[in-house]
Amino acid sequence: MTLPTGGDDIKKCSGCGIQLQSAAQDKPGYLPEKAWDRDPVICQRCFRIKNYNEASSVAVDQDEFLRLLGQIGGKNALVIHIVDLFDFEGSLISGLQRFVGNNPVILAVNKTDLLPKVTNWNKVLNWVQKQCKEHGLRTEDIVLCSAKKNQGFERLLETVAHYRGDRDVYVVGATNVGKSSLINRLIRDYSDLDQELTVSRYPGTTLDMVNIPLDDGRYIIDTPGIVYPWRYSELVSREDLGTVMPENPLKPMVYQLNEGQTLFFGGFGRFDFLQGEHQSFTCFISGRLGIHRTKLERADSLFAEHAGELLSPPTKERLEELPEWTRHEIRIPKGARQDVFISGLGWIKINGEQGALVAVHVPKGIKVLSRPSLI
């Protein structure tokens, strides 16, 4: 079935008002072709909320997302901003403050289960607070949590109850940060949804948002996930996504390097130790992604000859679908405790305090930066 393209034939979801389409399941307004002739007709996301008390994730691009965010400043709202601790700088919504106005923001830092069990969580919380200040984000509270392990959610729900008052709750976040898991928990704890719910019970707001009724007459507003193109999770194929995004706690890999040595992270990235005294570097990346050490002088030829084979994933075919690599040179000052962060791939902690000059090679567009060490 082809989609209506204009005029009176355009169909909109009776639940949220979005124009319906059957081409992309992960985009707003998706409706399977077999359900096209139902009456009333609702998109898959609204269908899942109505029948299963469960939200599913959809995504929009940056411009569309910013247009949606622009509405929140004029509302009486509590904003829950969900970020991925593994990809903190990559999933943080920069400039959120200017969109939400004076509305309170709770930062839910998800995927804490990925950090080693010996992690000092007070230090992590302090680190997050400093990063928020650095990015100009004011928060009423910060909650560390794990949707996968159901950890920290009671604390998050208590925080929401404390700040909500008579406000609607807007949930915002990038794709793949666990937004749906949080919304589903909010539905279970705050909403009076049941199997008898009719579509008219949750009026749509159009513009790709879904209003989910709460038991006090207010709403949870489920916003689409924002697609940030600088994250590996948006760049790699579906086949490689499970390799790049860790599912189990990270096992830090420590490498003692002399200057002039290189680490390859499968065929997805490369870390060069260009200059500095012998020192150790700790890699925090998915355990499914192999690390290969070589000499810097051999790195270019090794990649040219073995990318997609010895240096994999991705395969040669999928490697050709990625942008060409670009080089990022970073100088770590003496005495600094720094990470070299690669959005969606992980980070490399520089353990020595004598300083270093390093370079990172990744596909063009991937965010690379240095930051104070998380751990």
Automatic annotation (TrEMBL):
CDD domains with a match to the protein in the record: YqeH
Gene3D superfamilies: P-loop containing nucleotide triphosphate hydrolases
Domain of life: Bacteria
GO molecular function: GTP binding
CP-type G domain segment(s): 62-229
Annotated SUPFAM superfamilies: P-loop containing nucleoside triphosphate hydrolases
Parts of the chain that traverse the membrane: none
PANTHER family per record: GENETIC INTERACTOR OF PROHIBITINS 3, MITOCHONDRIAL (PTHR46434)
Protein name in the entry: Ribosome biogenesis GTPase YqeH
Naturally occurring in which organism (per UniProt): Paenibacillus lautus (Bacillus lautus)
Lineage, uppermost ranks: Bacteria, Bacillati, Bacillota, Bacilli, Bacillales
